[in-house]
Amino acid sequence: MRFTSLTTKTVKDSSQADVSRNAQLLLRGGYVDKLMAGVYTYLPLGCRVLSKIENIVREEMNKVGGQEVLMPALQPREIWDTTERWDKVDVLFKLMGAGDRELALGPTHEEVVTPTIGKFIQSYRDLPKAVYQIQTKFRNEPRAKSGLLRGREFRMKDLYSFHVDQASLDAFYEEVTAAYHEIYRRCGIGDITLLTYAGGGIFSKYSHEFQTITEYGEDTIYRIPGTDTAVNKEIVDDEGAMADLIPNYKKGDEKNLEELKAIEVGNIFKLGTRFTSAFGIEYADEAGAKQPVLMGCYGLGPSRVMGTIAEVLSDDKGLVWPDEVAPYHVHLVSLCRDEADIDRCENLYNTLCEKGVEVLYDDRAGVQAGAKLADADLIGIPRRVVVSPKTLKEDSVEFKPRSDDQAVITPIETFISVLMEKD
Ligand code: ATP
Ligand code: MG
Questions:
Q1: What is the pTM of this model?
Q2: Among 41, 48, 73, 177, fewest CB within 10 Å belongs to which?
Q3: Beta-strand (E) ranges in 141-218?
Q4: Which class in CATH covers the domain with range 3-312?
Q5: Protein residues whose CB sits closer than 6 Å to any atom of ligand 1
Q6: Which ligand 1 atom is at minimum distance from the Cα of 210?
Q7: Which CATH number fits domain 330-422: 3.30.420.10, 3.90.1590.10, 3.40.50.800, 2.40.30.40?
Q8: 178-189 per-position pLDDT tens digit
Q9: CA atoms of 44 and 59, how far apart (whole Å)
Q10: Ligand 1 pocket check: which of 304, 305, 306 to mutate, most ligand atoms within 8 Å of Cβ?
């Protein structure tokens, strides 16, 4: 992609537009635009990042046997009455449809998925089943001041599983837990994301959250000593739970736990029969007797993950995208002025494109080197390659990983072959 063709430009000052760090950087880099608090447009660069995150999620969900579906955001009141949640979910957006029909915009999809998939469950032979979607959710969040971290309209992957018994649910829950770890690893936040015990379990003692450690986080968690797991603050006061989770735990010990701020990037629950019993979803066992179907639900917010990466992995110069989610893999900066040099830079761009490398090519004429380099830092593509009259004299380019301070001069051929080995 040529800079001169890109729809967006970097934005000088967004200080009035948003207070959160992730939104500031993403607005300035031209990744998103804000329509109102908690509601954003994903511009071409932002769309590429979001799609890459969603594709990682999709691949990992497919690996655990999830089958992709797409459910409606627009939902009738009746299904929310069936589960008695119409008045209980305080963030539910309610609206009036034609013929005075009361509707909601889906904040989550248990009310849709349970009766829908239930239609295909008759006997034990029909189980287990798991479906997921990657879709836009709506929540009327009272405070939407954290950029992509807390949207009123945001992206969620929600997986739902259906089982004959607890053992089947437990085993699948473990598989999904491992898939989540893999997703965060591929998104570059694996080593700072902790599996966290939380309340809110409907059919189990706990639900599990995936919490990414950062001082900007809204949640407080306590790391269990010597492990990569943590406990959410809301359950620390539950002495019984703490004794369960931490060997030899005594009251007062919580004072010695490491307290961390974190962002919840995922949340998984064992729902048991909470929703299947409301909708009367049963299966016939081998003896033909009716049995309740057990469910699990597994949420993950791709747009929140994108905001988290922007928030956590950036530096004072701008964004720093991990490889797998970066909008492009190479940021090619031309500092060439005369025609012969420009031609050579164009050739390099074309060669890389032909080899399938995703390149953002700063081909702008009349823009100072300083401004181009500042834009490259702000946009945060993992590899910066500068081509100038000086480097071309040596048939070389100047190469710098975004996360390094030092640039190295590399012969063009070496640069291309090293890049191809990586890809
Ligand atoms: P929170 O406690 O932060 O409000 P939640 O526990 O209500 O979130 P879940 O219902 O568990 O959220 O949603 C599943 C996932 O969807 C969350 O783990 C998070 O990654 C994402 N998510 C939830 N609410 C939002 C939001 N308002 N904006 C962006 N992502 C969200
Ligand atoms: Mg949650």
A1: 0.97
A2: 41
A3: 153-163, 193-198, 207-213
A4: alpha beta
A5: 108, 139, 141, 150-151, 154, 156, 264-267, 299-301, 303-304
A6: 18
A7: 3.40.50.800
A8: 999 999 999 999
A9: 22
A10: 304
